[in-house]
Amino acid sequence: MPQKFLKHLNPLLTTSSPQQLQPDFSQGDRAISNPLYASVQALIRLRQYRAALNTADVLLTEGADDEEIWYLRGDALANLSCYHQAIASFQRALTFAASWPEVSISEAVCWLHLDQPQTALAACDRALEIAPTHAQAWLFKGVALHRLGQLTKAYRCYQQALQHQAS
């Protein structure tokens, strides 16, 4: 990859781990009604992924069944390198909130870790259908295309990532 791309993509690359893709949840009142939601988020921020996973599983056994808990569970699993399980959790989150691009991006990152760039590409395309200016979706689409040997398309995606990162 040309050095100029690496220099400009570095901020995107350093914020591409699953725990840093975590968006602000629109239903923040869940943390008020059940403080375990906030605990899972805090444990992930503290990189205590096993504890976050255990807490998410407690919430699920207590009847929590929504996009946020499944996303958080997937996030913890991805950071524990349990990519297949993480993907299953992200896909469950999408059954509740199909228009949440960060979930598809997190799924794509897992597919890339599993050396499945074609499947990662499809997840990025889903995210870009929802949010066509999402810089990280463009970045990981570029990574998937790069791994598929489609360098020209990959570099176009990297350029899109840079363009949308600035906006």
TrEMBL record:
It comes from the Bacteria. The keyword Transmembrane does not apply. Pfam families: TPR_16. SMART domains: TPR (SM00028). PROSITE patterns: TPR_REGION. The keyword Repeat applies. This is Tetratricopeptide repeat protein. It comes from Almyronema epifaneia S1.
